[in-house]
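About this split. The held-out portion is used to measure sequence recovery: a designer receives only the structure tokens and must propose an amino acid at every position. Recovery is the fraction of positions where the proposal matches the reference. Here is one held-out target exactly as it appears in the evaluation file.
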């Protein structure tokens, strides 16, 4: 009986610290104001954010992102970038054949989630329009995580 109890205590003590590794700004850490992370928009411009969660599956898939046929950045796991541009219609393409069309107004922010999709061993990155409120929180989390890594 005693070896079983000792084994249980060792296992619990090994895995107990793990939840602390997964803390996010939503779990009680101070959260910055989203607008303080980026420079203000110039008058006639709008901003398109591209972001991708860090997921181990598919992390080696890093296709380029194009906006109206021009290179905009790379889809990297756990990263984000943004482009300030004029109002108008935009065509986003990630990977071959995964596209999204959107309309951007002056002063507007649009958010594109570069989502991992596919089945089995075949994955692709698929652009999806993200809810602005949810996207802002997720970009803050990505930003905070990058800052914590820089500190270490």
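Reference sequence for scoring:
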């Amino acid at each position: 009986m005693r070896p079983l109890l000792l084994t249980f205590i060792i296992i619990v003590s090994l895995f107990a610290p793990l939840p602390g590794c997964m803390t996010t700004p939503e779990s009680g850490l101070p959260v910055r104001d989203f607008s303080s992370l980026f420079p203000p928009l110039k008058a006639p411009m709008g901003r398109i954010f591209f972001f991708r969660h860090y997921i181990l599956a598919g992390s080696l898939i890093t296709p380029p992102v194009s906006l109206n046929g021009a290179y905009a950045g790379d889809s990297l796991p756990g990263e984000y970038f943004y482009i300030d541009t004029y109002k108008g219609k935009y065509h986003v393409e990630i990977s071959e054949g995964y596209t999204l069309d959107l309309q951007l107004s002056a002063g507007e922010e649009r958010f594109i989630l570069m989502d991992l999709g596919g089945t089995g061993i075949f994955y692709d990155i698929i652009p999806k329009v993200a809810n602005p409120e949810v996207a802002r929180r997720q970009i803050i989390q990505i930003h905070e995580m990058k800052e914590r890594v820089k500190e270490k």
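Annotator remark: The chain has one domain: 38-151.
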